[in-house]
Write a structure and sequence with these properties.
339 residues, Alpha-D-Glucose-1,6-Bisphosphate, Chain A, domain 4, Multidrug-efflux Transporter 1 Regulator Bmrr, Chain A, 2 domains, nine-stranded antiparallel β-sheet, 33% strand
Amino acid sequence: MRILKKILIFLVVLVGLVLIVSAFLPGSVVVSRTRVMPISKETVFEKVTVLQKWPKWMTWAKLDTNAVYTYSGEPAEGKGAWYSWKGNDKMGEGKMTITEVFGTDSVYMDLVFADYDPTPVVFKFFEKDKGTEVFWSMKMEFPFYMRIMGLFVDGMMAPDFEGGLEGIEKLGVNEPAASSSAMKFTVEESKEMNCLCMTDSCVVDPKVIGEKYGKIYAELEAEMKAQKLEYTGAPFSINERYDEAKNFLVFSPGIPVSGAVKQTKNKKVKFCKCEPQKVLVYDYFGDYTKMQSSYEAMYKHIGENKMEVAGNSWEEYITDPMKEADTAKWNTKIYIPIK
């Protein structure tokens, strides 16, 4: 009886210690891994967003080679697409659903194992000089009494994440995506707009440019208020001139407004009327500092399709970064006039 009593006391103390430690631990844990792969961004994007590709690279698929997979379509890709699996006791059963796709830059998913709440999964893709950097994360929530598990989950999940990324790379090398399958360009006619603009210049430094944009848009909004005008669209910026040798940019941030202005009160602010024109358009999602590769792809597309550039490009900032903290969700429309 004494031994049984000691065992019970030990278990009570152990449970108490676990609960005390759990009180100081976070309720959620994010596991993530990154890998730079010598394959194109469009190839990586395809391997992740076409769900039929997952069993070919995911380490979990090796747990049961006879698992049954069901897909929402052929192919199952894009927002709302899903696939489910049912395997042996080691693999279990579950479902993966694509909840958001932001251009070719990031994909958000919900992973659901049987009898558990959805687990958010995020992939982000960044073009590099010799390939693509892939970021993969999963956020797991733990109830209070299981928070101590969060101390070990990264180590437990590491082989699956690292093996999965390696699997994407190997599959991408052996089965590259067809060119131009990922980036979707459209040819449109731009809108006619009344605009307030200011022109400035600086070296290409994200911090400096950000500070200048902030000051310019503040002055433009002050002019709008003085003129009793309203926004009629998202703010934009025209790329007037870029000197690559000097890393110097001349730009004109602007705001579409609800009426014409004969004379501005702030002499640095100019009123202009933007006429409709034929443009090549791309919906970019991500950090402003990583747009260069999108421009390069657009100009390449223009050349390959025997179009001609017919004016200065501009960017329209659809997402307000002050209201959305996740840079992967920042939508910027890039316009290049063509003929």
